[in-house]
Amino acid sequence: MDAAAIKAMQAPLKDAYRDDPSRALITLRARGAVEDGAIACKVETGRALAVAGLHPATGGSGLELCSGDMLLEALVACAGVTLKAVATALEFRLGAATVEAEGDLDFRGTLGVAKDAPVGFRAIRLKFALDSDEPQERVDLLLKLTERYCVVFQTLNSRPELSIFAAPA
After folding, report:
1. What is the predicted pLDDT for the residue at 39?
2. SS3 of 76, please?
3. Among candidate residues 60, 59, 53, the one with its CA nearest the CA of residue 35
4. Distance of CA 49 to the CA centre of its chain
């Protein structure tokens, strides 16, 4: 896909959202079922079931997916797609590219061992390795726009309003 193709594909959507902002408000959903005989949750991914379980640092077997890993994988997926879309729109000369995310956790918080230890990631680092002969200012622009338009990055960065409740099964 080239810049003209991505712009042509997105132009009617952008026009529709400008004309009627309510059309841009979409609710995405994820669903999972808690396992009966194991400490695991089967998550419907749209393609297959992903079974998430405890990380080995909290007593898990390591056979199931870790939700922390899944969060980092979602960030990598979103950042990679966003990077490619932005590069295409900017006509940025991009060869091979990789995206890597790593995050630091203190499992004492998760296990309730230390009340002063946070539950969740203390820090997340997102790294891009780009094969490009573009000047540094274009690389900087690509990364700035990728950060700006990556939904998962911005969600983590902006701390959205969260709520939790129980509903009848």
Report:
1. 85
2. helix
3. 53
4. 18
Report the C-alpha gap between 159 and 169 in whole angstroms: 29
Whole-model pTM over 0.85:
yes
Length of the chain counted residue by residue: 169
Q: Specify the 3-state DSSP secondary structure of 113.
A: coil
Burial 139-163 (b: 16+ CB within 10 A, else e): eeebbebbbebbebbeebeeeeeee
Contact (Cβ atoms closer than 8 angstroms) between residue 161 and residue 83? no
Q: What angle do CA 157, 87, 68 make, to 5 degrees?
A: 35
Say which residue the tokens 């004492």 belong to.
108
Pairing of β 97-105 and β 121-130? antiparallel
The pair of structure tokens assigned to 132 is 């490009």
Residues 98/129, Cβ–Cβ less than 8 Å: yes
Q: What is the pairing mode between strands 65-66 and 49-53?
A: parallel
Packing angle, helices 136-149 and 67-89, rounded to 10? 130
For residue range 35-93, what is the model confidence (pLDDT) as tens digits?
A: 888 888 989 888 888 999 999 999 999 999 999 999 999 999 999 999 999 999 999 99
Q: Which residues neighbour 48 within 8 Å (Cβ) at sequence distance 6 or greater?
A: none
